[in-house]
Specification:
The protein is an alpha/beta fold. It has two domains: about 5-260, Aspartate Aminotransferase, domain 2; about 265-400, Aspartate Aminotransferase, domain 1 (Alpha-Beta Complex). The chain contains 16 helices and twelve strands. The chain has helices at about 5-10, 15-20, 45-55, 70-80, 95-100, 120-130, 145-150, 175-180, 195-200, 215-220, 230-245, 250-285, 305-310, 325-335, 365-370, 385-400, and strands at about 85-90, 110-115, 135-140, 155-160, 185-190, 210, 225-230, 290-295, 315-320, 340, 350, 375-380. The strands form two sheets. Strands 1-7-6-5-4-2-3 form a seven-stranded mixed sheet, with helices on both faces. A five-stranded mixed sheet has the order 8-9-12-11-10. α5 packs parallel to α6 (about 120-130). It starts with a helix and ends with a helix.
Length: about 400
């Protein structure tokens, strides 16, 4: 894509960029983006091969682990959506988390992280980075005083989920960014629950934004994927060398699936949010629940922050069923339309029991500290008719 094309893309509105952003057509003029399902590329001469390995130009590729035309289209479109200068597409969301952090850190560096994280993110911070000599300090993400106390002059990065998995705790992006930047640290955000549709993370101070594109971007249960978004200097100078040599790149086929998902992600996410709002309202105060967690409810402790950062409550709901694991399992087994799985952000509504699945590797004490009880259900709201969704969930609660 030329500089002129990129400037035009920046001027267009988000939903337009989701359909047209980053598109590169072959000589055949195809309507749907082409899948360049190739791992390598041909050079007309030995001199041309030498020149490309010295410095590949725009729209020049060497090897699919380094870059691919279909993958480049996806990176361009995601960057336009997020308002970032550039992006690097990865094999999965966790490849993105690992790549964003490991590419910039070395032995002796210090990281401050929110404690409320997905289990695999915790593993990278607690087990992988510390194994190689990185010091990690955990804080309560909602407590700005803890961030202020933990960030030091030698802190290289802060890391958090803008909305935590699974208890939907928000972190004030702008406030934490001010604290981090005052110390010269980069702000790295896992933004999956907030979704790229509602994200203003870069505008609010994020330096790197990470998505598992497996979730809302594909949003139809098909492929793994992830992306790291930020400045062109950081993406190409820091992230790309690490990712292309360690093998965490996205496949061309998965990039094509993600491009197709981006065409409808705005429509799907807004429909999911509408349904989530209806379900949260129906569940709030239910006599089978000890709490309903949805940032779009006025009863949520961070409702005002959710409105400020996202403008809505998002697509995820959590609720705590009285009676613990046995009651939670009775609820799950009584669902007729909502499926039981561990994915999220899908067109289908999905219920998860975090204590025995996504967060089961955590100790009882860790789960307790994060508010993950045996009765907690995480529900990713799909695009079904909200009336059918409410009827299914309320009906399953009767089985409790």
């Amino acid at each position: 894509m030329t500089i002129k094309d990129r400037a035009a893309g920046q001027a267009r509105r988000a939903r337009t960029n989701l359909v047209h952003g980053g598109t590169k057509r072959s000589q055949w003029g195809e309507v749907s983006e082409a899948i360049f399902l190739t791992q390598g590329f041909v050079y007309e001469t030995a001199e041309a091969a030498e020149a490309r390995f010295l410095k590949a130009g725009e729209d020049e590729f060497i090897y699919a682990r380094y870059g691919n035309p279909t993958v480049a289209m996806f990176e361009e479109r995601m960057a336009l959506l997020e308002g970032a200068e550039d992006g690097f597409a990865c094999a999965s969301g966790m490849a993105s988390v690992n790549g964003a952090l490991a590419s910039m850190l070395k032995a002796g560096d210090h990281v401050v992280s929110a404690r409320a994280l997905f289990g695999s993110c915790l593993y990278i911070l607690e087990e992988v980075l510390t194994r190689y000599g990185v010091e990690v300090t955990f804080v309560d993400g909602a407590d700005l005083d803890q961030w202020q106390a933990a960030v030091r002059p030698d802190t290289k990065a802060v890391f958090f989920e803008s909305m935590s998995n699974p208890t939907l705790e928000l972190v004030d992006i702008a406030a934490v960014a001010r604290i981090a930047h005052a110390a010269g640290a980069l702000v790295v955000i896992d933004n999956v629950f907030s979704t790229p549709v509602y994200s203003r993370a870069i505008e609010q101070g994020a330096d790197l934004v990470i998505y598992s594109t497996t979730k809302h971007v594909d949003g139809q249960g098909r492929c793994l994927g992830g992306v790291i978004l930020g400045t062109r200097e950081h993406i190409r100078g820091v992230v790309e060398p690490y990712m292309k040599h360690t093998g965490g790149s996205m496949s061309p086929f998965n990039a094509w699936v993600m491009l197709k998902g981006l065409e409808t992600v705005d429509l799907r996410v807004r429909a999911q949010t509408e349904a989530a709002e209806a379900l949260a309202a129906a569940l709030d105060g239910h006599d089978k629940l000890c709490r309903t967690i949805y940032p779009g409810l006025p009863s949520h402790a961070q409702h005002a922050l959710a409105e400020q950062q996202m403008g809505c409550g998002g697509t995820m709901i959590a609720f705590d069923i009285i009676g613990g694991k046995a009651a939670a399992f009775r609820f799950l087994n009584a669902l007729e339309m909502v499926i039981i799985s561990n994915n999220l952000g899908d067109a289908k509504s999905i219920a998860t029991h975090p204590a025995t699945t996504t967060h089961q590797r955590l100790s009882d004490a860790q789960r307790s500290a994060l508010g993950i009880t045996d009765g907690l259900i995480r529900l990713s709201v799909g695009i079904e008719d909200p009336r059918d969704l409410v009827a299914d969930v309320l009906g399953a609660l009767e089985a409790v």
